[in-house]
Amino acid sequence: MELISITEIIGTVAFAMSGALVAIDKELDYYGIGFFAIITSIGGGIVRDLLINKNLPSSLANPTYLIISIISAAFVIMFYTRIIRLSKILQIFDAIGLGAFTAIGAQVATSNGWEQPFVIITLAVLTGTGGGVLRDIFSQEIPFVFRKEIYAVASIAGAVAYILSYRTLGNELARYICFAVTTMIRLFSIKNKIHLKKVAKL
After folding, report:
1. Running DSSP on this structure, what letter comes out for residue 185?
2. Is residue 198 one of the residues assigned to a domain?
């Protein structure tokens, strides 16, 4: 199994668990917890595939990641009190997932013939952050990516790295570079508590 596939599984678990934890925090029932887990982990990919007019989104054609999301939600339900103590580990997994999904989104763009930089960046960022945005919208919160930490910016940087390396190094190396850049920027911002500046209100 390719490293990028392994990291995608890790990311799916992390995203699904984060969705489940938000659902529990909002006092949703088991169905709501499962739904939040699924939408957080595969929602961005579904929206991406709809944008590029895929007949059937990849996550529905191959339900492996949907099943992983459901199992992750069940795991959170059973071991909730222990999991909430592992927030730092979940952040690391989340960073890995962001890197993996950003790289996959960039690859989907080029493999479908869309090599324009704006399209690559859009699909990469949408795949990496779209699920979290949908999760926050459903929970009636301003999406996390718009209000704190270096998250979407890390995804954008990874997509730019993919674009710069794709034509000279090929798709496979570009994917790993994209993954590495996104993940390292995200982890660096977590460790050093770096946030984008906000406009000071009068």
Report:
1. H
2. no
Decide if 197 is inside a domain: no
Q: CB-side exposure of 195: number of CA atoms within 13 Å?
A: 10
Amino acid at 14: A
145 contacts 129 by C-beta, under 8 angstroms:
yes
Q: What is the pTM of this model?
A: 0.86
How far is CA 123 from its chain centroid?
12
DSSP assignment of 80-103, as one string?
A: HHHHGGGHHHHHHHHHHHHHHHHH
How many Cβ atoms sit within 10 Å of the Cβ of residue 14? 24
pLDDT tens for residues 49-96? 888 888 888 888 888 889 999 999 999 999 888 877 777 777 888 888
Total domains, the chain: 1
